[in-house]
Model the fold of this input.
Amino acid sequence: MAYFETVEFVKEECCNCHMIYMVTKVFHQAMRDTGARFFCPVGHGQSYTVTTVQRVQEALDQSRREEARLRERAIGAEKAQQKAERALKRHKKRAAAGLCPCCNRTVAQLAAHIKSKHADFMQLQGLTTRKQLPEKVQ
Done:
């Protein structure tokens, strides 16, 4: 069996003279991995400007940046959710105490209505004792 039948080759083209020539697959991969300089049959210098290692490193860096961006986005969404939950809880407590959400005034009728008709709502909000209600309502 001839040498050429057992070795795999890769077709290359010179970037200067556009001559097409063949190199072994092992040589081609080594040049791509290292970025070392090689020559076409006419003598023009060739090299791969971005090596395989650099391409893999860039892809890894890109995926790490994307992961960090997604992590920050998830943390931001979690903080926004917690903030919204705290605001909702605060508004429920204020409504249970009879405070107007717009002008922060105590509305005695609303406080009395919630206390008499929705006692379970007040218990859920932690307003079961009278001393937790504003003085105007008591």
Residues 53-132 form one domain. The radius of gyration is 37 Å. Strands lie at 9-13, 20-24, 38-39, 45-46. DSSP finds five helices and four strands in the chain.
